[in-house]
Amino acid sequence: MANRTVKDAKSIHGTNPQYLVEKIIRSRIYDSKYWKEECFALTAELLVDKAMELRFVGGVFGGNIKPTPFLCLTLKMLQIQPEKDIVVEFIKNEEFKYVRALGAFYMRLTGSSLDCYKYLEPLYNDNRKLRRQNRQATFEIVHMDEFIDELLREERVCDVILPRVQKRHVLEESNEIEAKVSALEDDLDEEIELEEDNKYQLVEEKPKEKKERERKRERSRSRERHRSRSKERHKKEKERERDRDKERDKERERERRDREKDRTREKDREKERDRKDKDRKRDRDRYH
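The structure assignment produced for this chain is given below.
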């Protein structure tokens, strides 16, 4: 009974929520010590305390396939199926990063394509470090934005096969989601100005600082123009090289045809000489 999904649980992606985790891994979780001791009779409220105790993310490890606490709590969430509001609060939790990672992982497993992009993409701005345990039971460092990117792009994360999501551009074309705006699109100089304004709360810029900023901006523009010209020269050089290759190919083809013609003429001459030799021999035999 302790391993069954709650009675009023809704099917996720057309199946029992627990079936989103493969059977072999699911059985290893049921047999694990953490599941039996820490996950027994957990409710959605008590689950928060267990999530706050997490110290790393990961799937299974070791030759005998042991599950991590992160994966055990994920399966427990699939089993009890907490309300969506609770999962959203997990994702919005800024104090405990592993609570956020657990909520994001659960949302990626159970949420619709629209929900995945809506709730996970804002976490790209979170660059805190996470410890992750790999299959060899060693720890490695990843960042929260890397973890979120894996959830949205990879087919398997933490040894669990992720359900398919629609491509983002499809949702954009159907006006279900707004176009993605990257935080890196702003000009670096504008960011520097904004940081300076926020930090020092300057009302006016000094003429010297203004001139210095103008010079930096001009240097940046000149570098951009230089890169543009370099790209254009590189492109033209490639085109010229392509034309030269084509011309070489044509020249080789002409030479090949000329050699074929020469060989054909030489064969014709040999045939003509053989014919004349036969005629002369025939004439000698006739008169002698």
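Interim note for the steering committee: The two ends are 121 Å apart (CA to CA). DSSP finds eleven helices and seven strands in the chain.
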